[in-house]
Amino acid sequence: MKQFDLAPARHPAPASLEIIPVAEMTETTRAIRLTPEFDVETLGTALDHLDLIIVSFPIFRDGRGFTQARALREYYGFAGEIRAEGHLIPDQAQFLRTCGVDCVLLEDDADTTPWLKALSLFPVTYQTRLGLR
Amino acid sequence: MNAPVGLYQYQTADREFLASRIAEFEGQVQRRLSGDLTEDEFKPLRLMNGLYLQLHAYMLRVAIPYGVLDSRQMRKLAHIARRYDRDYGHFTTRQNIQFNWIKLEETPEILRQLADVDMHAIQTSGNCIRNVTCDQFAGAAADELMDPRVHAEILRQWSTLHPEFTFLPRKFKIAISGSPHDRVAARFHDIGILARPGENGPLFRIFVGGGLGRTPLVGHELFDSVPEADLLMTLEAALRVYNAYGRRDNIYKARIKILVQALGIDGYRKAVEHELSLMNPEHYRLDPETVAAIKARFAAPDLTASPDAESRLKADRQNDIAFDRWVRSNTHPHFAPGRIAVTVSIKPAGGIPGDATSDQLDRLADLADQFSFGELRITHLQNVVLAHVAQDRLLKLWQALNAIGLGDANHELIGDIVACPGLDYCALANARSIPIAQKLSARFGDNALQEEIGKLRINISGCINACGHHHVGHIGLLGVDKRGEEFFQITLGGRDDALSRTGDILGAALPEDDMVDAIARIVDRYLSVREKGEQFLDTLTRLGDAPFKEAAYETV
Amino acid sequence: MKRAIRIGAGEALVLTANRLLDGLIVWRDANGSWQRSIAHAAILSPEEYESALDAATKSAQNDGVVGVYEVVVRPGAIAAPVSVRERIRAFGPTVHPQFATELNA
User: What is this model's ipTM?
Assistant: First the structure.
């Protein structure tokens, strides 16, 4: 697998971190993988010790990861790395970035050209024009 | 600016956005053809650009935001029907237009043509926030409290390619009205908004969790008085709860109404309030300057009319009984003296509800230029509105409409049938809706008879997904499949106004070829038992459905 | 994927799909080509159709078609689908006789 950066990571996580499913995290865990139905509010102060949170997409049509990422950034001020993995398509690149995701995990042979292209397609969004965020 | 019409006038940034969107779609088509995208991956992407694969071909649904368009846009739709389709278009119950015989390979070109006149097909389908619908008499009706179009446009912009809400559990439909007479079926939408002026700016009453389909439910009031500044923040919170907790395991239980039902309106409201407590209002505030800037892109027509306009209309009505009847059924009072709002019926006797030929579309554009400042609206009953007609020119307009076969006096009468495309076009349908609509509208074609029968809405859906809104028809018909044959179930008493309720099933489904006679027997029974001044719903309320049940099943 | 299909006495199966580029309905003939008219469709017995469906589904991308599936028909000079839905697909919308599918095409 390879990592494709959507934006410069706010605080890039060290490469060697062991990733623990959120249900099994302990006080020493620094990197977790969320399940789509997980309520990120329940992480509470554990967030302070995390360097990496992975939001997962069982299928690209399941948009819960967008809400999780955005809540982590906006409600709880998470400043570490957020990575997206699972079934994602390049057409989602900008949405992921806007919701606070730093990078996506792609197959080694995945073509990154459409991902790059997608990131530059819409320089101005309607939400920004309305003064949101 | 173009003609002084009541829709948002595009600027450079909007046009650049559309160009990017078309480039994106063209790339997606290429990737689909090369096999980089599977059909499963491509399908949601094409749907979010309005492109379905239906029974016979691709179908393209073009957005008409809040139902308003100008004459050059209408001419472009005529051109698309003529050049890329089979010479007609179909107005939908969500104020859009769809073309039934589109080719995928020509779609990027069609989208470029649409963009030439500031139109698109964005989010007319897919599990995202759909094109926002609005009161068809917005900015014209005498009974209006507040023109909802500026906020409808704000909602359009806010929901367009929303980064968080483009992959929702299911589709999401929003309607907004500024009239105390809810003309948008606010209580039957995922979110329905009733706007009114307050002391310190507009206030919004928000309903949530209404809908038809498999599980018809009347929406609940979420908040009574949301101030303008908090409108988008409130909607974001409402959508966020839905995106996080709406069901994704079963598409028939994935709409927000099921979530609201499961949590109860109080539980759902609590969840929304919790979101709101976590949100930073500064990030979501809708500033008055932003609203003013968008409002400034709506032109206001000069609505002064000649001082004798009203008396001349009065004289014209006295001279022509048929015209007088049409004025009674197909016009709505305008707030400006000497003006009147006109509903052009796209329901000629024996016709296909909502279908218009390219030539009719072109002529409607001409008539809009001549009579209503080049502006047209599409209604959720699949008709067309010319909102600002001078009363002294109304007779001329009616004559011109008659010349193109669109002069029927049947708005909100029995001939004004709403029908989904049904099995003739739709990949999901169980039964054909259009042939029954045609037979019924031919049977009750006489305009004088229709007026005699009075307000009576027939809605026909070809399957349980209820695109023909049969649940809210005064008489509703639902097509069901019995061993490959078409049957229809009758419901009575539905309505989508301030007294919204869904109709009650009358009894066992009847075969397709019995249907028209059964409805005719129900109508005959109503005419024989009604009391003076009663409409169909009044009689039904007074007597219950027993007499109609007896009539419907008389020969069975 | 095996679906439960009910086939009555004297009935058989044909394969159908939509063309990717223009969306039009097509029927699979005996050579594995996709034709506009059901008149050219290969009539398959319940025993044969599954392997034909597998092959057609596998080559759908190369053949430029989407949504391959089977339709129950009554064989004849022109195969007639059993359900109203498939008859409308085969012969055209009932409300627009002028758009009827050309069966000799």
Answer: 0.97
